[in-house]
Amino acid sequence: MEIRVLGPFNARVKEMCVLPSANKPKQILALLALAGGEGVSIPDLIQELWGTNPPRSAHNTLQTYILRLRRKLDAALSTDGVTRPKDVLVTFYRGYRLNLEQDELDAHGFEHKVRAGRLAAESGDDENASRLLEEALGQWTGPALADIPTGCILGAEARRLEENRLTALEQRLEADLRLGRHHQILGQLTSLTAHHPLNENLHALHMVALHRSGRAGEALRVFIQLRDSLVNELGMEPSHRLQRLQQAVLLADPVLDSRECLSDALAKA
Hints:
Layout: E1 2-4, E2 10-13, E3 16-17, H1 23-35, E4 40-41, H2 42-50, H3 58-77, H4 85-88, E5 89-91, E6 95-98, H5 106-122, H6 126-137, H7 152-178, H8 182-195, H9 200-212, H10 216-234, H11 240-250, H12 262-268
Antiparallel strand pairs: 1-2, 2-3, 4-6, 5-6
């Protein structure tokens, strides 16, 4: 089985699409895939599909949706003759579970690559850290679960995936800065800070990249834009870390041009 959630939702068995046409069965399949071996309880599935006001027929309707999913699986597994739909979409005492191997869900592959990239960064191997994190990010084809509706549980899962994506991107950009690739990532940082006007980490990376490119004035403008956004939207000033970074840019502190860890450079600024 192959399931993709890092972009438009897709599920295939032996190259055959097993996505149902209706949205609610799609939600069930996506939630089961992301739950892994733990499965999802019937109350949680009902909450995902209907919120806090489910219809009286919710249990029966849920069983109907499970039956539809198993029929889709049966059509794809019919040439196997060994694996049954109930072996893949399993009923257990509290709910349902989807039997998936780690490499059958793209989110698992993403998380595995991200962990490897972080370990490389922690060991000082920024070249491999940048490569592994970029490979992880390359598995994304759009926003998580981009084409299906999400309830409170699946919506939270989608937000979690997006947060992990942004964190991995920040870590890759940090590795690139340590490798002296500030010119190559400037365009990406310009776009990212525009899309995330309250993200201090991205603004810090942008400021350092601009400083190292001989554009200190623009780096200071990035700080001013961040400050304006924080004050206007949240009524708060930038953190002390960002204020130290501003002072370092003003003083042309040489620590900002070193190859040491960006977080260390900011701490010394």
